[in-house]
Amino acid sequence: MGKSNNKGQITVFLCIILMAFIILAGTIVDIARIANGETQAKRAVLSAAKSALSGFDGMLKENYGIFALDGGESSEIKSTVEDYLKRNLMISEDEDISGRLDIYGFKIENLDVTPILNLTENDTVRNQILQYMKYRAPKEIIEGIWDRLSVVKEASNISEAYRMRYKVDKLLAKVDKVQQALKKNIDGDGNPDTFYVNGYNKNGVRQEMIYKFAEKASQYCALNKQRNELIAIKAELIEKMNNLESEEEISNLAKSIVQMEEVISQLYSQINGAQRERDKILLELQETHTRRFIQPNIESAENVKKIMEMAQEAGEAINQLEKYMSEDFTVEGELSASFKSTCEADIRKLRELTARGGEAGKILECVVQNRAILNAELEKLEKIKITAMSEQDPARLKETILQILGENLHEYNNNIIYDYERPVNQGDAADPRKDLQKNIGKVLKDDSNGDKEQEERDIIQSGIDMEQLPSRRKITSPSFDAEDLQYLKSIAYADNYSNTGSSVSGSDEVAYSGNLAGVDAEADFFDEQGMFAENAFGFLGSMGKMLGRGLSALRDEIYINEYIMGMFKNSVPALKHDDGEREDVDLSGLNKSLRETFFNSEVEYILHGNSSESVNKLMTRAQILLIRFGMNTIHVYTDARKRELATAVATAVAGWWTGGAGIPLLSNLIMCSWGMGEALIDLKDIMDGKSVPFYKKSGDWKLDIGISALDGMKTDSRFCFSYHDYLRLFLLLKNSNEKINRIEDLIQLNMQKQHQSFEMARSNTCIRIEAEFSIRYMFFTGIFIPSERKTKDGRHLIRVVLYEYY
Q1: 558, 171 contact by CB (below 8 A)
Q2: For residue 253, how far is the Cα from the chain centroid?
Q3: How far apart are the two ends of the chain, measured CA to CA in Å?
Q4: 703 with 675: CB under 8 angstroms?
Q5: Domain locations along the chain
Q6: Are 534 and 166 a contacting pair, CB within 8 Å?
Q7: Is the dihedral of CA 627, 631, 632, 636 positive or negative?
């Protein structure tokens, strides 16, 4: 049997297997090389981005702790990134460099570099500030602020209750005013020329006028009757004379007729006189003694209804106050406990006054009936007027007049008894409200504590267009969501940064309902229905809602506020302490006066945003004055001696007509005037760098009202507020977006003093790099790669999208 010809089969087989292994190994190596190349490309992009971001604005960083690119053009940044990429990936324009091992052969196919997140976008600035402050705001500062805020929160709780209490007083004062009007409607005001309900037929004057009218109407009727009789006799004589023939008889008869005509003429004169007097009396009866009394009765009815409605409204307001005190008012300390006991005692007294106001309803039926009687009397007078013209019998006419006009004379009620409680005047007292308004204006506008050499600036007057400031001119970064989504679908890598733009949600702001720049005009304590006190207590009371969110919720806002206080100047550059005066320093420990800034009162600009520095300072002082006014007034209210004195002064300065319902508001206005007087002293001390107790005890009181404060207790120094403490409080109440907006304004204004071309809108904090690289294939790997992952010339395509920011 011969041998089979199988030589070389195994070798061929092994060669085929080896070739497959070689192809597989080459592909695996190429895939690993591609994967490594992609990683290297990403690292190169990241490194280039970081290197590009290292060119931040050094002055901006040094002065404000904010990182941003130096306002360069996109092309410059792109050139920088491209240069770093070429260095990192060993890309050279010279293809013939020998001695270099390049297993990738990187090429930059496409490069797009976009600076985004500029410093007019509030989220960007906010995040940088928070990053900066987390390492510079120690826990002790936060806790110290919270201790003070707890006092403010308690005071806000009290202020809201006091605002409701003040509203009740205003309603009762309205009741008192209407009670005064009703009293004048019924009993007059002492002026003999006025008409009032009980003045009808007073001392029988109307009855006497009716009798006079009857007499005069009867006289007119008698004279008219006599005249008619003489005219008839005259006619008979003339007829008789016409029939006579004797001239002597005719002459004698003619003389008699002439004499008769003289008598008739005299009668005409008497009749006209009687008619005028009759009509005059009738008109006086109609108008002076009837119609004029209708209006007092109408007004009385209206005022009675008003009193009943107002008493009901006041009662409902008292119910709301009582409900608030029992359900919502929380006793957090000595202050709130004292206020609650005082207020609850007052509620009982106010209810008594409200109940008395409702008693006026008994009068309504009387005045309505009186009005009906008066209207009926007017109708009777019109009928009598016609009767007086037609009746021929004087006696019957007189009897008719007296009967018709006198039958319901006593049905009219002119003996209505109405009185309301009026306090006993306890002597004379000076009214503390006098000249107070002028003093408010002087203190608010007094800048004696400021540096006279420092000129108060105004943005507009300096020739700066406010519309070009970052707070007005927002440049929103472009969105690349669609492009990024495309890359996320096509590649496995993209930075997880999401470009959401400026989306800071502004918190609610606590604001004074009146005009901060015109507080001196609004603070008129003679105006019983003015809104100043109510607005001031509302401002103080609304703070509690903002501060009730808790420390964790307010933490970021406190960080931002501490940044503001540490970076920007304010109107009080030095605070006075027991151990001396301390200059205001920035977060680096340097004196703020050394900083070159547009405004000297920068924090005040952040609070109010007016182009005028003087207006911002005025409005900030007004805010402090409002709080000091509210807290001092609450102190007076909870101090029994001061409250009793206020009631005594109110009684002394009250008008004669002021009733018991008007005294609570008047007493409140006296307390408010003392609170404002003390607030003016406080404001002067605060602007001088001193600290003032947020809530005063009797020993802290300074205003001379006739009560000594020497032996009284004093407030713990931990709860004394300086000007800077008030700024922190106001910043916490400010809308977050507005604060960031105005921080941006100040940074731009200040930076432009050294670099006029600086703009926050051109300062970016992030760059987006979209890059496409290609590397060559070493084996047959390209066969297995989709076409969208390859270049036209068959190289492997690597796409990278990266966001890198400070």
Answers
A1: no
A2: 100
A3: 87
A4: no
A5: 9-119+763-805, 181-310+361-406
A6: yes
A7: positive
Looking at the DSSP bridge assignments, the partners of residue 766 are 116, 805
Cβ 804 vs Cβ 50: under 8 Å: yes
Which tokens is 705 given? 């009202």
Q: How many residues does the chain have?
A: 806
d(CA 450, CA 475): 37
Which amino acid is located at 410 in the chain? H
At residue 651, the 3 state secondary structure works out as helix
Q: What tokens appear for 352 in the block?
A: 């008594």
Count of CB atoms situated within 10 Å of the CB of 783: 8
H helices present in 287-363, as ranges? 294-323, 334-357
682-728: pLDDT as tens digits: 999 999 999 999 999 888 999 998 887 766 678 777 789 999 999 99
Interior CA angle at 505 toward 499 and 511, to 5°?
A: 155
What confidence tens digit (pLDDT) does each residue in 613-664 have? 999 999 999 999 999 999 999 999 999 999 999 988 888 887 655 666 778 8
Both tokens of residue 668? 């409140």
Contact 104, 775 (CB under 8 A): yes
3-state SS, 16-52, equals HHHHHHHHHHHHHHHHHHHHHHHHHHHHHHHHHHHHH
User: Which has the closest alpha carbon to 378: 306, 294, 436?
Assistant: 294
pTM: 0.81
Classify residue 223 by burial, with Cβ atoms within 10 Å: 0-12, 13-18, 19+: buried
DSSP label at residue 510: -
Amino acid at 322: E
Distances (CA, A) of 742 to 19, 477, 584, 731: 72, 20, 21, 12
Q: Is the backbone of residue 117 left (phi > 0), alpha (psi -120 to 50) or beta? A: left
Q: How far is CA 685 from its chain centroid?
A: 27
Tokens (6 digits) for 47 = 């490194």
CA distance 734 to 740: 10
- Cβ 669 vs Cβ 633: under 8 Å: no
pLDDT of residue 446: 83
**pLDDT tens digits, 361-399:** 778 999 999 999 999 999 999 998 888 888 888 888 888
3-state helix, strand, coil in the chain (%, to 5): 60, 5, 30
CA pair distance 654, 770, nearest whole angstrom: 81
